[in-house]
Amino acid sequence: MRRAAAARITPAWGVGIVVVLALVVWPYLGHSQAYQLTRLEYIFTGLMVAIGLNIVTGYAGQLSLGPGAVYAVGGYAAAIVANDHASVVGLAGMCGVALVASAVLGLVIGVPSLRVGGFYLGMTTLFFALVIPTVVANLKLTGKEQGISLLANIDFHQHVSGVALYQVTLAAVLVLLVLSWLLLESRLGHRFVTLATSEELASSIGIPPYRTKLLAFLLSALPAGIGGAFYAYTQQFISPGSVSPQLSIYLLAACVVGGFGTVLGPFVGGLIVIGLSQYLGRFEQYEGIIFGVLLVLFAVGLPEGIMGFEPRRVRVRPVWLRALRLPGLGGPRVEPVVRAVEPSAPRPAAVGAVAELLSGAPAERLEARNVSRAFGGVRALDDVDVTVRPGTIHGLIGSNGSGKTTLLNVVSGYYAIDRGRIALGGARIDGRSTHRIAAAGVARTFQTPKLVERGTLVDNVLVAVEQRGEVRGRRAAVDTARRCLAAVGLAERADERAGTQPHGTRRLVEVARALALRPGVVLLDEPGAGLSAPEVDVLRDVIVAIARAGAAVLVVEHNVPLVLEIADEVTALHEGRVIATGLPGDVAAHPDVVAAFLGANEGLVS
Amino acid sequence: MSALVVRGLSTGYGSVPVVSDVSLEVDRGELVALLGRNGAGKSTTLSAIAGERYGPTSGTVELCGRDVSRAGPAALYLAGLALVPEGHRVFPSLTVAENVRLGGFPWRRKKADAIEQGVERVMELFPVLARYASREAGALSGGQQQMVAIGQALVADPVVLMIDEPSSGLAPAVVGDIYRALTVLRDEGRAVLLVEQSIDRALAAASRAYVLERGSVVLSGPTAELRADDRVAAIVRGAAVVEG
Amino acid sequence: MTLFVNAVITGIAVGAVYGLITIGYTVVFNATRVFNLAQGDLVMVGVLLSYWVLDVQHWPQVAAVVVVLVGVAAVALVEERIAVRPFLGRSRDNIGWFISTLAFGLVIETVVVRLYGNNPPRPVPSPLPSTRLHIGSIATRPQLLFAIGVLVVVTIAVEVFYRRTWLGQAMRATADDRDVAALRGIDPRRVSVIAFLIGGLLAGIGGYVVAPIVYADVTIGLTYSIKGFIALAIGGFGSIRGGIIGALAIGVAEQLFDLYIDPRYEIVASLALLMIILAVRPTGLFRNAVVREV
Fold it and tell me: pLDDT, tens digit, for every residue of B72-92?
């Protein structure tokens, strides 16, 4: 996603173009000796791997040290095949072999490791990065400690060599960069970025987390494998020393320094870090210290990297970093505080627009029967029945701890139920995973709005439009996203960054995103909380419009007047059980409801 | 000089303002209620007074006449201000006795005896805790956990005790026990500030109350007056629509 | 048959060494939710300090113990300040600590290589005689039994610390609910420092015990970290006992792998264990009282 509403070509790209041009003309400036070119080619192979690493860790947010391992395996596979069939296999063949090997290794590592979240993937891939050098140093197939030398193989000739090889290698890097950029701008790229923000968010829009993570992992393996093949071809040898675990850490450093998640980050960071490692000369033995310190500095002080740095937002530095008095990195946090006045109110909801957006969406009945769920010893839900008919608004009220949000969570699939059944249009949905329930037409908002902070409002809604899959073409999809935002009165803010928006706007963006999914059921979790009066007006109109368009709406709310106003039916929960259900007025006047909200009179202290 | 004086408190989460210009006062031997709808800013107010800040904060907090506006949670606890947060939170893997005793942690070296006495007093106040003293706190019911949480804070012998929604999610009978205990604490001379969603309970126990709506104090006064004021119910629970 | 039994016994002893190291990870993780990737390198520092004191300076064993404990603990505290403390307040999802502890480990490794040179690893004199012991028909070395003994003592000490001391209980409380702990005067930053101090001491003990068994080799740091992770993955993060069981499992698996398959690829044994546990029970074997993350 575009990171700000700025022009596509930013000054950073300008620098990038200059660097690329410099690299292109480099050999013609008198640096065309074989060893000089070979060294740069080595750096370029590192860039390829870094680009791969950026895909899985930067775009998709899954910290992985896999690309280093894949680089090793791809390189060795290519080298072995080239060694055995030197007269037949050239660069293209080696790349092909490497691609196959990387895909296989990617599956072998990715499938088990991605099952658990957090840092498990990082640890597992680190392990592979550690194991592979040991294994290849002992296998006869891989030439043991000596590795494989294509140079020593009389049948092997570089069909492309010298300056031409240099240019081919550089071109390969640039092609991968362009592909990486296209990926980021594609629907798949948007899914990656959403996943990186929050797995919960992604699955609530219908993005399958495991499959998407695996895809990101596999896509990161391919450039890494190609990098390995190019390594074997340009350096004409490969050995355990070429694929040490340190390399994986340097690649990580390259992306951290350059900026994870940006397109040019791996390129810039890689040139700096890997380039530095080549030209350290006398200081080579301090390589680890230099890069280790660099990595810690950046991880702690500038995690968004050089290409990700935004000068406007200065942030808090840990004390020791401030003491170093590095220019531009110190200083207290300067946060734009939104004053405690009414934020400029969104325009009134375009009710007709809502109807238009939702026309043709499935209208189905949501039914929960005998639903029970306990956590530890606490019964969060106890034999709860709720039915929401299409085209109606069903309010869910109750005090804290009554189970309202838990009910939303079991309907959306976030929690499993112990007993009972939940059905959508007659078909059971309890027990299904969250993303499949979302794909079946259940949209929800969260108590604390979850948005992709660095994307614009349009970007945030766009993912949902794309996920729904009914709109073809980027232009039409963006158009639809804008219409969703206009429907909730946010047309004017559509191109602003989500991260800078006040709470009320964020809430409305979530509603717009729900609209984009064209759902049959909409679950709203305390949508009115923290909204100003005009925002509540907009919200009310939108919710009513959604129901009139045919969707079944379930609203959890503390704002009882709001619920009583718009709901067709109300259910009151207390301590996990339904204590009243029916028409809003009846429920509100029900003695049990009054008692539960006000508190029992017995045991009161006078 | 009141035990707790808050003037012009404004705070929020990052750039989102939640509390605006709130002023309140609680004296020793008083039980004061802070009422309001969910999202009105009650919990955020208590947290900010107790030193937990999540964004730019302005205003002053005085504890027994001393300005503690900049103090953090640990320092305030040491000074005699204890907050029992919402949700009957305890340390589930520690026993009841360990939980309660841990409330005296900052004084473990100098006042070990005082801590033991404090623990004993807590057991007298909540006899059920004495019975379950060596049970893991995670295994207790919500109401019992709430007693553990309050007891833990009491070991610090706080001058000001702030409790966030003591009755939330608990059965009515247990809530009665807890409120009885709160009045005992008030009579001991502590200043008790109570946040509640349930009006009747709070107004019956407190002598004064403040009503918060969208981050600001909109009503305040003696509970006798507030009980008669229709606006309170309307603001807190939309009871105005009950008759409709 | 005795070969098998021998392998198992040796495996348990080797596993005990891993166990000593694993406790360090658990203590730090429980208190800070950070898995210290540099912990293995701290152990290596302990090994090399031990070597320096005993082989270079020829000081007595007692001096080695003191130097190792103080030295490693100091490095651990520096690490906490620089690479971990900045991440304490950040959200659960942020795993920047992974990168910074990994980087810190790299720095330690490089510094050590500079100081120690790329000399081949050498044996370190042990406080115990190195003659083989024979218990029944099983042959083993006293150092290995020493390791088991130290593990038992340390485990008991750590459990006593957690259960009986104020500080230990405060650390458990922080692991349960950091916010409420802070409200009761338990400073999470202090807890983090103490956790790293203990972790450092444990790494030092591990290094001292391991030194006579493992040759003073600069590359073992990261390998220990990975094995510590696998031990915790098997046993369940947050559980001291679980971690030890996991460590023993790794030790035994390695020895059996050496015996029946090929000692050169010993590291594949732990890889296999990792893949199995991820496939069968990713959250680990034991439920533990501390909140399970991940």
Answer: 898 999 999 999 998 889 999
**In C, which residues are within 8 Å of A122 by CB distance?**
95, 98
Total number of domains in chain B: 1
Measured between CA atoms, the residue of chain A closest to residue B21 is A340
Q: Angle B181-B183-B186 (CA atoms, 0-180°, nearest 5)?
A: 115
Question: Using a CB-CB distance cutoff of 8 angstroms, which residues of chain C are in contact with residue A285?
Answer: 110, 113-114
| CB nearest to B105's CB, from C176, C179, C185 | C185
- Residues of chain B neighbouring C185 (CB-CB closer than 8 A): 73-74, 77-78, 105-106, 156
Residues of A in contact with B195 (CB under 8 A): none
* Contact across the interface for B94 and C173, Cβ inside 8 Å: yes
Give pLDDT tens digits for A392-422.
Answer: 999 998 876 678 889 999 999 999 999 999 9
Q: Encode B188-205: b = buried (16+ Cβ within 10 Å), e = exposed.
A: eebbbbbbbbbbbbbbbb
- Topology agreement, domain A34-279 and domain A363-454+518-598: no
The CATH fold of domain C2-280: ABC transporter involved in vitamin B12 uptake, BtuC (1.10.3470)
* CATH number (domain holding residue B216): 3.40.50.300
What is the nearest CA distance from B105 to chain C, expressed in angstroms? 7
Residue A341 has pLDDT above 80, yes or no: no
Q: Count contacts between A and B (CB, < 8 Å).
A: 112
Q: What does the domain layout of chain A look like in residue ranges?
A: 34-279, 281-301+311-336, 363-454+518-598
Q: Whole-angstrom distance between the N-terminal and C-terminal Cα of chain B?
A: 46
Question: Cα(C216)–Cα(B28) distance, rounded to whole angstroms?
Answer: 66
Local structure of residue A590 (DSSP, 8 states): -
Topology of domain A34-279, CATH? ABC transporter involved in vitamin B12 uptake, BtuC (1.10.3470)
Assign C292 a pLDDT band (cuts: 50, 70, 90). very low
The distance from CA A48 to its chain's CA centroid, rounded to whole angstroms, is 21
Tell me the CATH number of domain A363-454+518-598, given options 3.20.20.190, 3.20.20.70, 3.40.50.300, 2.30.30.30. 3.40.50.300
What ipTM score was computed for the predicted complex, to two decimals?
Answer: 0.89
Q: How many CA atoms lie within 13 A of A574 on its CB side?
A: 20
